[in-house]
Design a protein that fits this description.
Blueprint lengths: L3 H14 L6 H12 L4 H11 L3 H10 L11 E6 L2 H5 L2 H11 L14 E6 L11 E3 L2 E3 L4 H18 L1
Parallel strand pairs: 1-2
Antiparallel strand pairs: 1-3, 3-4
Helix pairs in contact: 1-2, 1-3, 3-4, 6-7
C-alpha cells in the first residue's frame, strides 16, 4: 500500500509530463531516479492514474534494460567484461567484488542496499581496460586491489554524508 506522500509524489511527476502514453518512459525514468528501481505497487498506481493496463506498463518496464523492478544499491557498479576488458583480466575484478560484498549468483545487491554489481559488454572505454562504471562515472585500469580500495572510499564517503 503506497503512502499518501508517495502517491502525491507520483501524481506530481505525472502532472509534470502529462498523462499521455508518449510520456511514459520519461515518467518511469524520473520515478526510478527517486526510488532507484520501479516498485510493483508504484507501477500499478501509475497504470491506474494513466488509465493503462498494468500489463502494458510492466511490459515497458521489463523491456528496457535501464529499468529495474528490483531494488538496487546506492552505488551501481558495472564491471565491463567486453573483449578488451576480459583479456586484461576483468573477471578477477568481478570476483574480488563478489567476495568483498558477499554476493553470489543470483544475489547482486548487498543487504544494506549500498552496492549492486552488474556486468556489461562494453563501456566504450576500451583504452582504459579493464574498466568499470559506478553511477555513470568510469574508472579505468582497475585491479582486484584497486576495486576494494574504491569500495572502502565509497563506504567512507557514504558514512560522511550521514
Ligand atoms: S570492452 Fe570494456 S570498455 Fe570496451
Amino acid at each position: 500500500m503506497l503512502t499518501l506522500d508517495t502517491r502525491n509524489e507520483i501524481d506530481k511527476i505525472i502532472e509534470k509530463y502529462g498523462s499521455n502514453r508518449s510520456s511514459m518512459i520519461t515518467i518511469l525514468q524520473e520515478i526510478q531516479g527517486e526510488y532507484r528501481y520501479l516498485p510493483e505497487e508504484v507501477l500499478e498506481y501509475i497504470a491506474h492514474k494513466m488509465d493503462i493496463s498494468p500489463s502494458k506498463i510492466f511490459g515497458i518496464a521489463t523491456f528496457y534494460e535501464n529499468f529495474s523492478l528490483e531494488p538496487k544499491g546506492k552505488y551501481v557498479i558495472k564491471v565491463c567484461d567486453g573483449t578488451a576488458c576480459h583479456v586484461r583480466k576483468s573477471i578477477p575484478i568481478l570476483n574480488a567484488l563478489i567476495k568483498e560484498l558477499s554476493l553470489s549468483d543470483g544475489k547482486y545487491t548487498t543487504d544494506d542496499l549500498m552496492f549492486t554489481v552488474e556486468t556489461v559488454s562494453c563501456l566504450g572505454a576500451c583504452g582504459l581496460a579493464p574498466a568499470i562504471n559506478i553511477n555513470d562515472k568510469v574508472y579505468g585500469k582497475m585491479t582486484p586491489e584497486s576495486i576494494v580500495e574504491l569500495l572502502n572510499k565509497l563506504r567512507e564517503e557514504s558514512t560522511d554524508e550521514n
